[in-house]
Write a structure and sequence with these properties.
single chain; 199 residues; alpha+beta; 2 domains; four-stranded mixed β-sheet; 10 helices; 10 strands; DUF3109 family protein
């Protein structure tokens, strides 16, 4: 673990390799799971604001859920999460002709139709953020549906924190990310030294 200001980062974020492989997983992280994606309170208004833009992209089932309970709900752990359809799909999921799942909000953002990318928890995955009073924990979340991403990350040699540079800066700022990157460089040097001593 390393600490940068009041944020504690798991060493896995620096050392594990990861690159999303959408062709392999088909966007399964937006489908599988026992709850919706974590949502910050200030993001609820953003989700509601973008609804008219993406409404026609959503399935009739998703539209019905949103009409009934809104864009978010509180799960069994007391966390605010995106609403889901049939205890599975996030209400904001859509599918292309190849059966690949994608986020309707992100699609609209990339097409210049809205200014909200998507909930930062989705943008940050496979990193999960947890609050512990005065400290915030940044952890790497392992999930079987992301095996192909781990394989691709190892093949390309891209650690989690580098793959998630954009969302980490979005969440914590560019200055904090630079400190994280510097720590990662130092961590690598120290571990290389330890490995050399073992031979």
């Amino acid at each position: 673990m390393i600490q940068i200001e009041d944020i504690v980062v798991s060493s896995d974020v620096l050392t594990e390799k990861f690159i999303c492989n959408l062709e392999a997983c088909k966007g399964e992280c937006c489908i599988e799971g026992d709850a919706g994606a974590p949502v910050e309170k200030n993001e609820v208004a953003e989700l509601e604001k973008v609804l008219p833009v993406i409404w026609d992209e959503l399935s009739p089932e998703a539209q019905a859920v949103i009409k009934k309970q809104g864009v978010v709900y509180t799960d069994q752990d007391g966390d605010l999460v995106t609403s889901i359809v049939g205890n599975k799909n996030c209400v904001f999921t859509c599918y292309d002709e190849k059966g690949c799942c994608y986020c309707a909000i992100e699609k609209a953002y990339r097409e210049g139709k809205c200014n909200f990318y998507k909930p930062v928890s989705c943008h940050l995955y496979p990193i999960r953020i947890e609050n512990y009073g005065p400290y915030t924990a940044v952890n790497y979340h392992r999930w079987d549906v992301c095996k192909a991403a781990v394989v691709l990350g190892k093949l390309k040699g891209v650690p989690v924190y580098q793959f998630l540079k954009e969302p980490l800066i979005r969440k914590f700022g560019a200055e904090w990310y630079q400190m994280l990157s510097d720590c990662a460089d130092e961590w690598t040097k120290q571990n290389m030294g330890e490995n050399e001593e073992k031979y």
